[in-house]
């Protein structure tokens, strides 16, 4: 395990290894839960990396799976210990989508479709503040500031010269037309969007209204891919009270095909920049 791998990814890799050991023994999660006198949901959460796992849990599971090689047991227990370390985002307190942040921090590429707002990684400070305040009207100024700070910190992946995130964003025209904050703020945001689109690792495409119905009509989603081939790609769908993470190969493949259709229907890069600049001009003239 590389020392720079974040705890979210460590949990995923450990969970994948524990699932592999269970499947080698031809045991179901229910059978393992019965042996350990725990709930089946706990075994599932440990395997999908959504829950911290203790060294004791690892030891007990290795016992059930009859792992005889002490080096393997010790390696898995060390992974469990490492997975309980905190990522940079924990310094900001309780963040509802901390699992996603952990995945995004380690991802090599991110494909996102956004129908309502500018993607978070491409937002200006003012736009992010206005979006969060509008989306969470009962939040305190301190909570808004915290969320904006987290969003700004996430954008470091775009600025990272050594390991930049490969970002591909398809944005619905509605996100450009929706006036968040005020028109001046929107002009600044659209100018920033065009500026970011010139980065070699950032691609922005707009899906105009006149394209009609399209595969993204059901809403926002993101596909994360990782540099280590042992880490499966993840489809992320954000919810109001809970988020959905899809990791099965057939699910990822389905959303990937949908994304290819979105990219094909959207304006190309140059057309997109012209389109965004034209909307910004209309805001300036109003």
Automatic annotation (TrEMBL):
InterPro entries: Cro/C1-type_HTH (IPR001387), DUF5753 (IPR043917), Lambda_DNA-bd_dom_sf (IPR010982). This is Helix-turn-helix domain-containing protein. It comes from Streptomyces lateritius. It comes from the Bacteria. It holds the Pfam family HTH_31. Gene3D superfamilies: lambda repressor-like DNA-binding domains. Residues 18-72 form the HTH cro/C1-type domain.
